[in-house]
Amino acid sequence: MDFATFLQISDTALRFATPLLLACLAGLFSERAGIFDIGLEGKMLMAAMSAGAVAAMTGSVLLGLFAAILGSLMFAAVHGLASITFRGNQLIAGVALNFVASGITVLIAESMFGQGGRTPPLTGAARFANIDLPFAETLRAVPVLGPFYAEVVSGHTILVYVALALVPISWWVLYRTRFGLRLRAVGENPASVDTAGVSVVQLRFSAVIIAGVLCGLAGAYMSTGLQAGFGREMTAGRGYIALAALIFAKWRPWQALWATLLFGFLQALALRPDVVESMTRVAIPVPFLDALPYILTVIVLAGFVGKAIPPRAGGEPYVKER
Amino acid sequence: MSAADLGGRQATAALALPYAIELKGISKAFGSVQANKDINIAIPRGTIHGIIGENGAGKSTLMSILYGFYRADSGQILVNGAPVTIPDSQSAIRAGIGMVFQHFKLVQNFSVLENVILGAEDGPMLNSSLAKARKILGDLSREYELDVDPDALIEDLSVGHQQRVEILKALYRQAEILILDEPTGVLTPDEADHLFRILRGLRDQGKTIVLITHKLREIMETTDNVSVMRRGTMVATVKTAETSPESLAELMVGRKVLLEVEKKPSKVGEIVLSVKNLAVKDEHGVTRLKGVSFDIRAGEILGIAGVAGNGQSELLDALGGIAAASGVVVLNGAKLPLTGPRANGKARRDAGIAHVPEDRQSLGLIMDFAAWENVGFGYHDDPRYQKNAWLMDNEALRADTASKMATYDVRPPIPTLPAKSFSGGNQQKIVVAREMDRNPELLLIGQPTRGVDIGAIEFIHKQIIALRDAGSAVLLVSVELDEIMSLSDRVLVMFDGQIMGERVPAQTDERELGMMMAGMGAK
Description:
By secondary structure, chain A is mainly α. Chain A is built from 13 helices and 2 strands, in the order H-H-H-H-E-H-E-H-H-H-H-H-H-H-H.
């Protein structure tokens, strides 16, 4: 693989990693607060459809983004209601939401546009435009780093940069603020928060809402950034891959970035079977390359990456004792 | 009792504000159960006030009302003479009330500092809060012997240190009234002594301490006044100096209680269990039990004394077939397999070893299952419980459970009630009934009275003695030295996975055993 090819693949990897990263951070906030969120997939799908539909109708990608966040938040609210207010099973609530999302997105898109469950193709202002970062062309002459900056880092939509910026921001919020301290505490031992006189329910709802907003960004990126319109099941299990990346990352923001970049890289590699073949000198079937991220997901979830300790109170509704 | 007839020191403190807490006519019902009935109590400032009562007497409910976990159905709370309402924990904290729960409310993977500031941060950013807390913690540590490394993670701290963090949490929130719920249940004698020194220091600084316990000795040694609760009512408040353990026990239970265990000299028979070089490694490959050897004869109780975590649990697990071990264990002349598929709890029960595990809630019972199902566990193959080759005779098991419940005084005697609905003492009686009722060759019993009320302690102790007198061998593991001393015929002291020495209770004392438990004075 020559340097130019590497840059190309890295560029694609970053694009593919972005929705994973956003969803992974969504899961991170939710699970750090003790709410296992298997419904990332459903929320992303709902957001992708909302963004695609509203952007197609209004021609404004920003309105689409707004709709995406709203759509995702609706699902998040239901998840919160089921698992926090009514102390239901978080996993089952999440799975149910995924099923609902899978059906209702196609239903709404079909009844609105009649194009077989797709939203119309988006063009111009209805999509996020790629942004060239300052000095991309001037710095191109700098060896190695210059082309890397110009090819890989520069030239993405704003959501990619938002996702990258959210990594240090998430770290800062979690580890440097009062809210982060309480959020982490409520996922480890909600009783400690409760006896300190802080509301467990409010904290967990804030976490679920943050997850909703982030999934909204992820979904909007799918239909208005990465692609030009919503299509049936377009998230293709990215919510689950994000969950695997979250476990891989041991529920930490920076590790989440590296984990999602790895998954993104595998997805990008699947688009270039020629490169893989020239490197391995064996013809690897394309479907196998396509399956790589999912295979890695299985491996991660099966616990082959060392011990990952989830937040101790994760998955358990908080019931006040005594 | 009025404030006027308290001792001189309290009287001085009492001049300004007589009572830290006054409860007037507090009642609280859960469904049909009246947990608190018309409770009246006045706790003078600057005293240590004991609240004693059996499990289920309503002590914890009363304290939960004070800390804003429950709202009383009726009644009035006065703090420092002013009426207050305490709808939530935040209000309790504002009123100057701090609580140290029996089960600590700490975040295990947070540092001490983070736990202390949680919920009491100064602003949205952590750094300034942490710096301020570090300074205050340093001052508090020096003032009250509350040494603890502010940067240590909770999970790396001993139980005694974790408890100090809970106290520091309350003091950091400027609590003037500190409530401690069963604080010594998890502590070694040394740690408990240290805790009481801390509490006295706090009292001498004018703080008010409420100590909830069922241990009479702690009440007698530490408190200024003591209130006794029984079945949801406050039956008496007396000065500690003017009462005795016997009369407190009688007030608690409502009848005369034997505090001393009565037992006849043992009639020792053949060797039942012979253990040689028994060693156990934990899941990390660390050797926890380092080759212990001993014999137990029929008709004797061998007590294992030691601070929790010195290999006693591993010893019980290895003998009970729960943990793989190396070495030689011979039961009535037959070698027991210590590893492999035949080393399991069922095989050990079939061989005649009954096991009352240390942690009844995780190993002894399934809390969501009914009492009768719990009574069947491990003995579900018993021919008495079989209808035919395929089906169990649940009716027979339920009937047997009912009869066991009657024999072992389990209250309420309802076989279909889930295990979690019973009090700690009655849960323990269910386990004890299951394991002891078959007159095993050998009984392994760990912490038989942990979290068990005084009436049930007396009962369980009698059952253990009766089993011994019937010719069974008993291996008793307990962190309660009193219990070891009064029940055992011989005592082995364990430290760091090894046996430090053997003593006969009549020829030793708690001081000597305590030294051995700390790893000193070996042989």
